[in-house]
Design brief:
The complex is a heterodimer of chains A (262) and B (148). In chain A, the strands form two sheets. An eight-stranded antiparallel β-barrel of chain A has the order 1-2-3-5-6-7-8-10. In chain A, strands 4-9 form a two-stranded antiparallel sheet. Helix content of chain A is 16%, strand content 45%. Chain A is built from three helices and ten strands. Chain B has helices spanning 3-18, 54-57; strands spanning 44-51, 65-70, 73-77, 79-82, 89-97, 104-111, 116-120, 124-125, 130-132, 139-140, 143-146. Classes of the chains: A alpha+beta (262), B mainly beta (148). At the A-B interface, strand 1, strand 2, strand 3, strand 5 and strand 10 of A face helix 1 and helix 2 of B.
C-alpha cells in the first residue's frame, strides 16, 4: 500500500513538473525570443543503476567480523531534475544484510505458548555457534521517494560544462523484508539520507559515487533487542546514470551540448 | 583500461566483498555413551548440583547429558531435575572415586539438539563426601566446546 502511494505521488509530481517545464519555454520565447530546447516529458529525467556494499548497524551485529558484516547492494532509481538544483526520484534498493543474534531479545514470531527455542524461527535455519549465537540472513528491498538538492548548482550556479556536482538527498520509504531462513516477512517505514559525488561524463551519462544511511525500526527483522528504537545500514556504491533526453535547462549560463540548436 | 571497465571492476569488487556465507558448521558429535565402570570399586562419593549457562538454556532438551570425569574416566552421570518454575534445569551427580584419588573433577555436557559436546573450564578437587553447589543454588558450568 505504501509503495503504491510513493509511486503514485512520484507519477503525479513528475507529470506536474513536466507541464510546468513545458510552459516555461513558451513564455520565455514570447519575452525575448530566446531559443530553448523543445519541451519533452523526458527532459531531465534520469535512470540510475548502482551496485556496492552495505553494513548493518543492529543490536549484536558488532560481533560479526568486518567482512561478514559487508553485504552486496544494488539500487535502481528513476527521477527527474525539476531545476538544476532540485530533483525528485523513486528508488528501489536492496539485496542482503547480515545480522547477528544472541538468545536475548523479543521475537515477533513468538507467542505465549512458544517454547524458548521456537521463539526465533531463525534458529532452525542457520548454524548455531557453540556459545548459542547465530547469524540473521536478511533479504530486503527498500522503496523510497527522495528529494534531491544539488549543492554545487545551488551555490555556484548551473553550468552545462561542470565536471562534477555534489548532491544531497533525503526521503522516506517502505522497507520490505522477505521471509528467508526464519526471518519473518515484514514491512517497515524507513528514512534515508544520501550524499552523491556526481561526475558528468556527457550530457547523457553520469557516474555517481554514493554514500547513504537508512534507518528503520528496531524490530524490522522480527527481533527486538538492544536499547535503540531504530537501527540502520550504511551503503557505499557506484552508480551509472543515464539522462533520458540529456541535461537541458533553459537560461543556463552556457549553451548545453545536448542542444545543438543554440 | 576504459572507464566502463573500471566501473565494472569496482562494482564487482564491492559486491564480491559483500558476499559472505554462513558460519562453517561446528563439528557434530555423536551421542556419548557415558557410564561409570565398576562403581563397586569406587567407594568414595562427592555430590554435585550443576546447571548449564543461560546462553545455552534455550537450546537445552531433556535428552541432554552431563557427566563427571576424573583422569578422563567417567565417574558420574547427571540426572536432570527441573525446578518448580521450569526455567532452569539442574543436574544432580554422585561422583565416585577411589581411596587415593588425586585427579580433579571435570564436567562435560552434551547438547542433543545441537549435537555439540562441551567441557567445563572448572577443575574441582575431589573430597570424600564433599559437595559442589546445591539444588537451589547450582554451580553454573563455564563451558567450552570440544571438537573431538
Amino acid at each position: 500500500m505504501m509503495i503504491r502511494k510513493i509511486l503514485g505521488t512520484f507519477i503525479i509530481f513528475t507529470l506536474f513538473s513536466g507541464i510546468v517545464t513545458a510552459q516555461a519555454p513558451v513564455l520565455r520565447q514570447a519575452a525575448d525570443l530566446d531559443v530553448t530546447p523543445k519541451a519533452s516529458i523526458w527532459n531531465n529525467m534520469f535512470i540510475e543503476i548502482a551496485g556496492g556494499s552495505q553494513m548493518l548497524f543492529s543490536a549484536d551485529a558488532e560481533n560479526l567480523d568486518f567482512k561478514e558484516r559487508l553485504t552486496p547492494q544494488v539500487a535502481l532509481s528513476l527521477g527527474r531534475w525539476l531545476s538544476p538544483a532540485f530533483g525528485v526520484s523513486v528508488k528501489a534498493e536492496g539485496c542482503s544484510l547480515n545480522g547477528f543474534s544472541t538468545t536475548e531479545g523479543e521475537y515477533a514470531a513468538a507467542d505465549e505458548s512458544s517454547l524458548p527455542f521456537d521463539r526465533d524461527p531463525v534458529r532452525k535455519e542457520v548454524t548455531i555457534n557453540p556459545d548459542g549465537t547465530y547469524r540473521h540472513f536478511i533479504r530486503y528491498v527498500n522503496f523510497s521517494l527522495n528529494l534531491s538538492l544539488s549543492l554545487t548548482d545551488l551555490i555556484l550556479g548551473y553550468n552545462d560544462h561542470s565536471v562534477f556536482s555534489l548532491v544531497t538527498s533525503a526521503g522516506i520509504g517502505n522497507m520490505h523484508v522477505f521471509g528467508y531462513k526464519g526471518i519473518p516477512r515484514k514491512n517497515s517505514l524507513s528514512g534515508n539520507a544520501n550524499m552523491t559525488l556526481k561526475f558528468h561524463l556527457s550530457p547523457w551519462v553520469e557516474l555517481n559515487l554514493n554514500g547513504s544511511a537508512t534507518a528503520f525500526p528496531n524490530q524490522f527483522e522480527g527481533r527486538m533487542a538492544g536499547t535503540r528504537d531504530y537501527e540502520n545500514y550504511l551503503t557505499a556504491n557506484v552508480g551509472l546514470v543515464y539522462n533520458l533526453a540529456g541535461r537541458r535547462f533553459a537560461g543556463s549560463r552556457t549553451p548545453t551540448s545536448a542542444n545543438p540548436s543554440k | 583500461m576504459n572507464l566502463s571497465r573500471v566501473i565494472f571492476l569496482m562494482t564487482a569488487a564491492l559486491m564480491f566483498l559483500g558476499c559472505s556465507e554462513d558460519t562453517d558448521p561446528w563439528p557434530k558429535q555423536p551421542v556419548p555413551e557415558w557410564q561409570v565402570d565398576s562403581p563397586a570399586l569406587l567407594p568414595n562419593s562427592f555430590s554435585a548440583f550443576i546447571a548449564i549457562p543461560e546462553n545455552l538454556q534455550v537450546f537445552a532438551t531433556d535428552k541432554d547429558m552431563v557427566a563427571a570425569f576424573i583422569n578422563n574416566q567417567c565417574r558420574g552421570v547427571g540426572t536432570l531435575i527441573r525446578g518448580d518454575d521450569d526455567k532452569i534445569s539442574v543436574y544432580a551427580l554422585t561422583i565416585r572415586a577411589m581411596e587415593d584419588e588425586s585427579g580433579s573433577i571435570v564436567f562435560r555436557y552434551y547438547n542433543s539438539r545441537l549435537s555439540y559436546l562441551y567441557e567445563a573450564r572448572q577443575r574441582i578437587a575431589f573430597e570424600i563426601d564433599g559437595t559442589y553447589g546445591t539444588f537451589d543454588a547450582p554451580e553454573i558450568l563455564d563451558l567450552e566446546p570440544l571438537a573431538n
